Amino acid sequence: HGAAMLVMKTDGPIATRAARYGSLAGVIAAVLFVAAGVWIATGIAGFRVDSVVDTALASNPLHKTVSTAPGVWMDNYRHMPWTMAAPLLGVLGALASAVLLRLRRGGLAFVASGVSIASVILTVGFAIFPFLLPSSSVPGAGLTLWDASSSRLTLWIMLLATLVFLPLVLLYTAWVYRVLRGKVTDASIADT
Predict the structure, then answer these.
(1) Exposure of 33 in the CB half-sphere (CA atoms within 13 A)
(2) pLDDT in tens, 1-20
(3) Cα–Cα distance measured from residue 84 to residue 77, given in angstroms and rounded to the nearest whole number
(4) Cβ atoms within 10 Å, residue 110
(5) What is the pTM of this model?
(6) N or C: more exposed end of the chain, with fewer CB within 10 A?
(7) How far is CA 177 from CA 49, 111, 171, in A?
(8) How far, in whole angstroms, is CA 116 from its chain's centroid?
């Protein structure tokens, strides 16, 4: 991702090295991501909630039964096939970024790399759902999405805070990107 940014923001030998190393890193990332997926599917025990989870009751992480078995982390992909888009985009994004860096298309490589990063994170989220923090020592004590949810009042306050502060953050971010637009050249450094 950083290599794509360097290709966008620089010229000359720095951009050339960034394209070369970033391209190699993209291929290595895709290969390691696939290898990790095979390892998770075949060699690591996953967690499955066996009891009924009543989301209307007060949350208590210890009121559920959880079993472990190899390959269970892939259950969500079998039950919800649409989630396979995440690992597929993770691999394709990394490979596309590698190719686009070789072609010196920094902006498109940056987008492809961003898609790959987001997809890798989604892959993990889809695999471990509903767990947020599984417990390897006491599987039944693992934290699930329902165990970690806030009260309605807290969620309402956070919604209001988001409605106020998110536009401010977006405005500031837009201003920063406007100020930092363009390539970094010897002339632009001398002007500062």
Answers:
(1) 24
(2) 999 999 998 888 999 999 99
(3) 6
(4) 22
(5) 0.81
(6) C
(7) 45, 16, 10
(8) 8
